[in-house]
Amino acid sequence: SQTIHQWPATLVQPVGSPLSLECTVEGTSNPNLYWYRQAAGRGLQLLFYSVGIGQISSEVPQNLSASRPQDRQFILSSKKLLLSDSGFYLCAWSVGLEAGEQFFGPGTRLTVL
Amino acid sequence: RKEVEQDPGPFNVPEGATVAFNCTYSNSASQSFFWYRQDCRKEPKLLMSVYSSGNEDGRFTAQLNRASQYISLLIRDSKLSDSATYLCVVNGRNTPLVFGKGTRLSVIA
Description:
The complex is a heterodimer of chains A (113) and B (109).
Chain A: E1 3-7, E2 10-13, E3 19-26, E4 32-38, E5 44-52, E6 55-58, E7 64-70, E8 73-78, E9 87-94, E10 103-104, E11 108-112
Parallel strand pairs in A: 2-11
Antiparallel strand pairs in A: 1-3, 3-8, 4-5, 4-9, 5-6, 7-8, 9-10, 9-11
Chain B: E1 4-6, E2 11-14, E3 19-25, E4 32-38, E5 44-50, E6 55-57, E7 60-65, E8 70-75, E9 84-91, E10 98-99, E11 103-108
Parallel strand pairs in B: 2-11
Antiparallel strand pairs in B: 1-3, 3-8, 4-5, 4-9, 6-7, 7-8, 9-10, 9-11
């Protein structure tokens, strides 16, 4: 069966510090991968998605970046965090872009102070 | 106009009540429609797909009106465990899913 892992579960970082969140998927090949952010009391905001290794589509311009160095690994990074980067970061995978079901990881709760 | 719009709620209902959530979408080319459920501080999970003919899964019924670009979710005989945020989700051709902001439901004993 397929599983998706994210770590860490919670993170507290100072403003201006770097960020690296990792997501890995097991049990499937060539998944579509996604990074979302959910700010407190707000909806899911799609940040990046990837249909293959090295292929990244950015949905919202900001100080975040994403990379996909391996088929089942998706990394979200920032060189300098802002207060507004606080939120609940969710990684997800699906079989195809139009696939009805996206499977979400447990998320990382990031607080920037 | 936002791509997917939902009433944010909260909907506070007693156990056993019937509650309905509505959702509108702006992209007339949208092909697929879903309801997801998100528990507090947890990840979203697929609740059910929404088909043109309407579909039912136990106490849950989903309806789609393509002409009005409107989706609904009906929950009958509400349980305490139904308390969650319900997300309306649509997609189009070759585009990722678009999530609504969700409607929060609290079922009260």
